[in-house]
Write a structure and sequence with these properties.
By secondary structure, the protein is of the alpha/beta class. Helix content is 57%, strand content 14%. Helix 1 crosses helix 9, helix 4 runs parallel beside helix 5 and helix 6 crosses helix 7. The protein is globular and about 40 Å long. Bound molecules: BIS(adenosine)-5'-pentaphosphate and magnesium ion.
Length: 189
């Protein structure tokens, strides 16, 4: 079982690279942001609750997010492995994921952290706002809030996996193919 935590700030390329990693390794891609957005589109109770946080660039509360993620994993008993994209985003989420996966004897294999500087992140997100329809892309104040929340609450999660010897930083600047190659080299190690 190959369980990859694909980590990085907003706009680092997690979603973009996940598509290619799924093709190469036959994994199930679980993006908590995508799942929340699907719930918003479907106007579910979960979607309505998540939207109030996402539109402001804040994190959805841990208890709801953890429950949702676990239920998504449970939907795929035949999976060869998972790419966790945008999860865990807090130390509490990382600890809950450890407990949950340890109970299944399928621990996280590695955390691959895409590293991109802030000016490039903002440029990518503002460019994507033209086409994404994501309310959290179109407002520079919300983009800044997402980056600030990442630095304050999410960046420490890297330390959680570093302590387990599972952290690898990946240069997230370059073409999509170049970055994919770097990810594959890290997975092979
Ligand atoms: P989420 O959907 O996870 O958004 P995010 O982390 O803010 O980041 P993005 O999805 O915008 O970026 P990405 O790294 O996937 O980059 P992408 O490949 O799209 O979360 C949204 C919200 O949901 C959160 O703010 C929070 O409210 C909530 N949420 C989600 N998970 C949660 C959790 N676990 N706990 C609590 N709340 C949670 O690329 C970005 C752009 O750059 C694209 O246009 C792409 O084409 C372009 N690009 C990609 N690669 C390159 C490259 N190499 N060169 C140039 N451009 C590139
Ligand atoms: Mg994404």
């Amino acid at each position: 079982m190959l369980n990859i935590v694909l980590f990085g700030p907003p706009g680092a390329g997690k979603g973009t690279q996940s598509v290619h990693l799924v093709e190469s390794y036959g994994l199930i891609h679980l993006s908590t942001g995508d799942i929340f957005r699907a719930n918003i589109k479907g106007n579910t109770e979960l979607g309505q609750m998540a939207q109030s946080y996402m539109d402001k660039g804040q994190l959805v509360p841990d208890d709801v997010t953890i429950r949702m993620l676990e239920s998504e994993v449970n939907k795929h008993p035949e999976a060869k492995g998972f790419i966790f994209d945008g999860f865990p985003r807090t130390t509490a989420q990382a600890e809950a994921l450890d407990v949950f996966l340890d109970a299944r004897s399928t621990p996280v294999t590695c955390m691959l952290a895409l590293e991109v500087e802030e000016a490039e992140l903002k440029a990518r997100l503002l460019a994507r706002a033209e086409t994404s329809g994501r309310p959290d892309d179109s407002n520079p104040t919300v983009i800044q809030k997402r980056i600030d929340v990442y630095n304050a609450e999410t960046a420490p999660v890297a330390g959680h996996y570093a302590l387990q010897g599972k952290f690898t930083g990946i240069d997230g600047i370059g073409t999509i193919e170049e970055i994919l190659d770097r990810l594959k080299v890290a997975i092979a190690h």
